[in-house]
Amino acid sequence: MSETSAAPLVSIEGLKMYFPIHAGLFRRHVGDIKAVDDISLEIFEGETLGLVGESGCGKSTVGRATLRLYDITAGSITIDGTNTSKINQADLRRFRPRMQMIFQDPQGSLNPRMNVADIVGEPLDEHMSLSREERLARIHELLDAVGLNRSFANRYPHEFSGGQRQRIGIARALALNPKFIVCDEPISALDVSIQAQVVNLLEDLQKKFGLTYLFISHDLSMVHHIADRVAVMYLGKIVELASRDQLFNSPLHPYTQALLSAVPEPNPARQNTRVHIVLKGDVPSPSSPPVGCNFCTRCPKAIDICHHVEPATIEIEPGRFAACHLLESTTKVA
User: Is the CB of residue 213 less than 8 Å from the CB of residue 230?
Assistant: First the structure.
């Protein structure tokens, strides 16, 4: 799935991430939780790809699998020309400075026994050989970059607000000059008043350092603000991928339409005229997804074929993709 002829910085092909289910006295393998089920994505250098969907749809698993925090079940992941899904742990460790992660919970992701200097400096200790003075200078440089006072270096995580802790996490992610960063719902645990500040910081850092982001979130309004392209996930699969403006102005997949209909509209006149799409039922279990289209059990537009045949991903127009039987007559299969 690409929208340009340029080679992507990150290429994900046929990614599957299954977690085994064991039961019985002998812990026999009786099934799998299909957290990510055969997805393909490309992320181009310098862009922000938003990944959205309901809680439990597999967004965070995609991010962690992309960075090889999990050993993937199937598929390939290529980052900056290296197939990271095939390399061994020693080579992967040497490659890690090029790819980093900002975690969802800024409190849980910081060691409470380490001060800020040790937290931010830990990647430097692991991957670089710096003198004491060079290490401290780099830590101060990183604190400056994320808008924290250098005097905070000797303080501990519990002494900071949620927004400040997330800035510490961002500084740690920047320590080794990565090219690609997975932002795993980096603002969901923060106060609304702080969320915009953190997103603006991420944008400023992207321009300054030429970063590429996979921005995972369930906050569609914030994704609309920061993302260049948006991929929509449902039950382990990508159901629609488009540029930000295309997706928010004219969503094609019924699930995307339902998601966007729930986003609050600040204009009261427009809010009163909007049609809200209410999805019935619960999200099926990823251990036993429906036959055919994953969304068929809740889709208000489902037809007979949806309950028997899985839809192919089709290219609606250059760079725009969707997986829906209702759209298959419009264009070619991707």
Answer: no
In angstroms, the first-to-last Cα distance of the chain is 7
Pick the residue with more confidence: 330 or 155?
A: 155
Residue with tokens 């921005």: 215
pLDDT given at position 244: 95
Is residue 331 predicted with pLDDT exceeding 80? no
Residues 230 and 169: their CA atoms lie apart, in Å, by 24
Q: How far is CA 92 from the centre of its chain?
A: 20
pLDDT of 107 > 60? The answer is: yes
Two structure tokens written together for 290 = 């429906």
> Could you tell me which of 223, 224, 256 has the C-alpha nearest to residue 237?
256
Q: Of 203, 216, 285, which Cα lies nearest the Cα of 66?
A: 216
Q: What is the pLDDT of residue 277?
A: 83
Structure tokens at 224: 């609309």
Contact status, residue 8 vs residue 43, Cβ threshold 8 Å:
yes
36: three-class secondary structure by DSSP: strand
| Predicted confidence (pLDDT) at residue 151 exceeds the cutoff of 50 | yes
Q: List CB contacts of 202: < 8 A, sequence separation 6 or more.
A: 170, 183, 186, 213, 215, 226
Question: How far, in Å, CA of 103 to CA of 100, rounded?
Answer: 10
Partner residues linked to 51 by β-bridges? 216, 231
pTM, two decimals, is: 0.91
Calpha distance 273→256 (Å, rounded):
19
> How far is the C-alpha of 69 from the C-alpha of 251, rounded, in Å?
32
